[in-house]
Amino acid sequence: MTAGKRGRPAHISLAQQLGVSIVTGSQEPGTVLPGEVELAEKFGVSRSVIRESLRMLSAKGLVESKPKAGTKVRDRHSWNMLDPELLGWMFEGAPPLPFVHSLFQLRMIVEPSAAELAALGRSARQLSRMGHALEEMAKHGLSNEMGRAADERFHTLILEATSNELLISLSASISAAVRWTTFFKYRAMKQPHDPMPQHQALFEAIANSDAAAAREATAVLVRQAQIDTEVAIEEETRRAAAAAKGNGHSTRS
Predict the structure, then answer these.
(1) I need a labelling partner for 195 at 20 to 30 A (CA). Which of 39, 54, 139, 165 fits?
(2) pLDDT of 18-73, one tens digit each?
């Protein structure tokens, strides 16, 4: 498969392929990647595309390049785990449970407090936009890309309503976490839990300027999202194991 799939710039597509192989464990920390010439031949792109892809991965903390030593995969503690693209790459397969626990622990630290602040400081316009996002979520459903985009907007608007520039700076990472865990849940589960009532309760608490209720509604929403994601990981892992067992049986036959 060449790097220019789906009309994206070749270096972005290739960076994703290499990034996914790193964050999902196919290329472990300490691994030295093939040289530019070998990668260019493998993916059918120019060496300039390879260099630009590796620069993208380096900016995310995934690799480091040194003269004569080549390009090496860095240890996990060097990765920019809050990078929205990197978060998406983690969910290309079934992400490790410790990573998921950390992700939801971060959300539980940030989002209930943000909702509390939003309930006290939101503007009428922000509340209207939250309501519209909620309507779009209900209209399209979270199995649909438009519904998931509305879900992201809803959570981003809550952070914006805090008027705290540091919390707002986390909005891209939080919205990416919302996007990819929801996408993964609907991909992996046959009948995922419907989160709309919890979103509605959160919206009503913010609309009523009830800070305590907004905090609690958010905590309930995030806890349920974590449970759903962990169940989805278990189902995805079982399917992968069954498929691997089936392929092994076919090979032996």
Answers:
(1) 165
(2) 999 999 989 999 999 999 999 999 999 999 999 999 999 999 999 999 888 899 99
Give every CB contact of residue 38 below 8 A, 6+ residues apart in sequence: none
Cα 190 off chain centre by: 20
Helix (H, G, I), strand (E, B) or coil at 92: coil
CA distance 134 to 199: 8
- Return d(Cα 229, Cα 252) in angstroms, integer: 34
Instruction: Read off the tokens for 136.
Output: 């779009």
User: Which residues 6+ apart lie within 8 Å of 26 measured at CB?
Assistant: 20
Work out the average pLDDT over 6-18. Answer: 88
As a whole number of angstroms, the distance between CA 124 and CA 130 comes to: 10
**Tokens coding 140:** 């399209």
How many C-beta atoms surround the C-beta of residue 149 within 10 A?
16
Q: Which residue has the tokens 């349920």?
A: 224
Half-sphere exposure of 187 (CA within 13 A, CB side): 16
Residues 6+ away with beta carbon under 8 Å from 128: none
Report residue 108 as tokens: 């539980």
Which residues 6+ apart lie within 8 Å of 184 measured at CB?
Answer: 91, 95, 229, 232, 233, 236
10 Å Cβ neighbour count for 246?
A: 10
Say how many C-beta atoms besides its own lie within 10 A of residue 37's C-beta: 10
Closest CA to 126 of 203, 220, 213, 201: 203
Phi then psi for residue 2, to 5 deg, are: -85, 165
Q: Which two tokens stand for residue 189?
A: 């589960």
Q: How far apart are the first and last CA of the chain?
A: 29
